[in-house]
Structures are given as structure tokens and as C-alpha cells.
Automatic annotation (TrEMBL):
Gene: galE
Catalytic activity line of the entry: UDP-alpha-D-glucose = UDP-alpha-D-galactose
Native species: Acetobacter ghanensis
Keyword Transmembrane: no
Descriptive protein name: UDP-glucose 4-epimerase
EC number(s) per entry: 5.1.3.2
Principal EC category: isomerase
Domain of life: Bacteria
UniProt GO molecular function: UDP-glucose 4-epimerase activity
Residue span(s) of domain NAD-dependent epimerase/dehydratase: 4-251
Lineage: Bacteria, Pseudomonadati, Pseudomonadota, Alphaproteobacteria, Acetobacterales
Amino acid sequence: MRYLVTGGAGFVGSHVVLALLDAGHEVDVLDNFSTGHRGAVPAAAKVHTVDLIDYQDTVDVVAGQKWDGVLHFAALSLVGASMADPFYYLRQNYLTSLNLVQACALHGVKKFVFSSTAALFGGPERADPIPETALIQPGSPYGESKFMIERALHWADSLYGLKSACLRYFNAAGADPQGRAGEDHGPETHLIPLTIDAALGRRPALKLFGTDYPTRDGSCIRDYIHVADLADAHIRVLDQIEERSVVYNLGNGHGYSNLEVIQSVARVSGLTVPWEPAARRLGDPAVLVADSTTLRKDTGWQPQWGELDRIVETAFRWREKHPNGYGD
């Protein structure tokens, strides 16, 4: 098969590219490299340096090849930044994705896998874990932009027959178990790499935002899912959209607290993690865990890297070896 992966130079997208290549498929990557890294793209993947905001350039790539499917990861993804500049986030994420969806619908693409977000579920009455049937109430322009894209895909199916899978998840983490790719954001905002860098002395003491939540140790609980397991899920759903579109929540099945992340990094690395308590951040809920029961039942997917120490171990090995990320 031949697949086009947008955002294939980013964290999750690059791991999906590796998984597709490992499975024997041909892969093209479309990326504007605004946040992605050329070093994250395997040599076996053909690269199209294109910004999806340009509709004609997008059409040229989509129409220039018969694709067995398109997997879409290209997006701005910082919740806080979307609150600070909401219209930019809404415009960029929605219009770039709309261009891609339209090009696919009009030029013969039959399958579309969308990397969505569980940040769609922003209401205070959210269940634990969160099922697909939970009330959609995005808590940020970032989450809203992802839901707008899901709605565009609904109409692309209804009117043009473009079948899609929308995967909603929280915190991608870890690194390729073979050490070929890892996490490199600028600036870094994810807890596990920040904790690792604090342990390695590459940054000041970690700030733990909130230690008085109604959880087992007072810190927030989050759903960390290994990026290799995410890649596996994105590929598995391609078989589910032969005849119908699907929406799945995707999660590890077990939430881990911020303090447990610190303890895991200390165990895995053998180092002390300097940290200090800080005030809660506005809008941070106590628990966020997604329910992946339906995905598991339909596809047979099971996380292979679900234990926190295994997630952290792959992240630590990659980050220790690449102190400057792909700049190395």
C-alpha cells in the first residue's frame, strides 16, 4: 500500500511513518517543517515540503498519486497557546485540514485517518474514563479546532464517500523502542521529557502544578500512551473504514499521576529529580483518562508499552542520547 502522512516529521506522525515502513508499505510525508524535524523522517519516505494552507499545493500532492489512505497529524497542538491566540489556532488548524479533506474528497482518496484529541471533552461532568458518548464540550480553541475538523470529515463522508477514522487521545509519550525517533518540541511542554531533563540537569527544578487535587497522591492524573502504541492504533483503524467511518477514544487504560511520573523517571534513570510544588494551573482537571474499550473490541488493539516505567525508559534512552533532539 501507499500512504500519505501529513505532519510526518512531528512526534506522533514520525512514529507512524516508521510503523508503516516496518509493515512494508510505501510512505510519503507532507510537512511544512514549522515544528517538525527533517531528521525525524526516515530516508525511505519521500518528502513533500508543502504548507497545507496552500490549497493548490495540497491538491498537487493529493492528486499526483493514487493513495491507499491519508493519515493526518499536521496541526498546532498547544492548549495554552490556543487560549492566548484563539483565532490563529482556529484558522490554522481548521483551514489547513479543510484544504486536505477537500482535496482528498475530490481526488479519489477513500480512507482518511485523523489524529484528533480527547481535549474535545472539556466539561466538568466528564466521566472517568471518558467514553466516545461523553458530552463534547471543548475546553480550548485547540480542542474546538479538532472538533471542527471531525465535522468536516462527517460531511466528506456523507456527501463524497470519504471514509474516516477519528482517534481521540490525551498524552502521547515515550520514544521508538529501537531508538530511531523521539520527542523534540521547541519549547518542550510535556511532563515526561521535562522531568527527564530536570533529572539530567538540563533544566531547573520541575514545577509540579497542584499537589492538593482529590487524587491518590494530590497531583493530577493523566492518560499517558506510548507513541508506538498510538502508531499501531492509527494503522489498525485503516481496516475499519472500508465501508464506514468510525470515531474512537484511545487510551492506555490506566492513568498515572504527576508524582508517579517523577518517581518513574527517578527509578528508570537512577537519578534524583529536582522538583518543587507550584500553584494549580487554571483549567487543569484532576483526572483525564480516555476509555478505549470500543477500539480494543473492534480492532484487537492492546497497548504493548502500557506500563509507565516502560514508557519512561524509552523516552529516557532517546533523550539521554540526543541532548539537542534532532539538532544532534
